[in-house]
Amino acid sequence: MTRRHTSIDGNVVQRNAKGFDRIPRQSHYFSAPKNHLHDTHYMLQDAMTTSVESPFRIIVVGGGIAGVAASHMLHKAGIDHVVLERRPIVATPEGGSLFIYPHGSRILEQLHCLNVVEKGTVPPGRWLVRLPDGEKLMNSGFFGYLKENHGYGILIFERPKFLQDLYDTLPDKSRVRTNCPVQDIRQDDDGVEVVLANGEIERGDLVLGCDGVYSLVRSVMWENANRQFPGMITAKEKTAIKANWYCLVFVTPGIPELGTTEVNVINGPKHSHMFTLTPHRGFFAVYFLLDEPCPWPKRGRRFTDQDMEELAASVADHPLTETVVFAEAWKRRLRASVVHLEEGVLDHWYHGRIALAGDSAHKVMPNMGLGGNSGIESVAVLTNHLRKMLVDNNWTKPSKSALEKALAGYQAERLERMRHIFSFSSNLSQGWSTPWYKFLALWVLPMLPDRSLVGEMSAIISSAPTLNFVEAGRFPSGRVPWNYEVKKTLVSKEGGGVKTSKLGGMGVLIALTAMIYLYRASSL
User: Fold this and answer.
1) Which site from 201, 257, 428, 442 is most exposed, i.e. has the minimal number of CB atoms within 10 Å?
2) Do the strands 242-253 and 335-345 form a parallel or antiparallel pair, or are they unpaired?
3) Which pLDDT value is given to residue 52?
């Protein structure tokens, strides 16, 4: 069995059933200048992967965390692919901190890159919630209890370093092409073509959009879906991902007077502070509430350096602790930016030969650090379904109906979980934006036993997916078992039952606290 690919200069490329080129030194992509052609003979070396690469080819658009993780996982599954990144480098010096929870680390262990990415990381110590004057309101052992529950702690990364390490540990970096902005996507009965800005054409069987919250791939998918089934993608869904907050983000060297392992939160009515300390880096974020939501397709305003200075000046005198004010941290910044914080979960994650993963399908508030983990999860689940499809088809090219079944299974497996993670993250990221959230922040969270909120997070962690065709190795376990099938109730040794559909056992305590609050108010 061969596949014929035609390049823009008319040359014909034939590929056999194993996915190897029959013409030596021929590229997977199509370009007229032959001195740019790369060697694409590719042998899988990992004993855990399939020994024959399939004739099914995936074009991944976007070389961020989800896109690079996809390259790792597709390699493990023996699935032919290429990753297209529009920027000249993968790990641009942007963003602040990144939290990887134990369930994310478990997948990284399956990819044999955890030992590399975890080097130099320092586990977080205490979780401190402070009042606007810097006084401590809550001092929680949240992170330590999570480690007890799962046998492995949270890892804190500088986002560019994590992405660089993820890229550096790829089995085959030639799969990732930089400086490759996508111009158009075209589908036909036999496959899909991705047209690059320079005229080159990548041809495959599926496009995976890992290209972020303003995804071009998603826009093309929506157009195709509504052309084939008018009204399938509604305006309500298109505007489901929206920003209610924007954030001043900056990174500093370590600031010992603020601590070395603490995660601090300071809430307020229109803005909140969150800062995480390690011995070598400080990661700071100031969240500002927008006057009105900013839904897709609107793009938030582009902030200048002057805008950043003005935002920083507006909170310059705010205490971060009992002894340090914001301006003292701001003056030590190494880099800074202002970003809008979009959040939302779409109803449709695929159509035809296009699928979505990561921020293009689901984006959550960053305060609880579940965004990067969720993107890795989604790619893992999609890889599981695609590999099963290929195994069921004896590693021959699948039919359109087989592909449809695999993508439908992927969406069904992920949608409910991501809606819960979205709700969980959003509820714990609102500061004092309304009287209700102020009440929760001042009266409820400080009264909760540490293990109550830990139980909520443990329910998310323990029920997370992995690559189901790769052994988890010697990844540790704790008091809470790893069990992906647990979806309704998780029972731990000390925490009791924890529901995953809402805020679980917190609801009872919230109700009791509300009655106490109303009683006190009526007696004044």
Assistant:
1) 257
2) antiparallel
3) 53
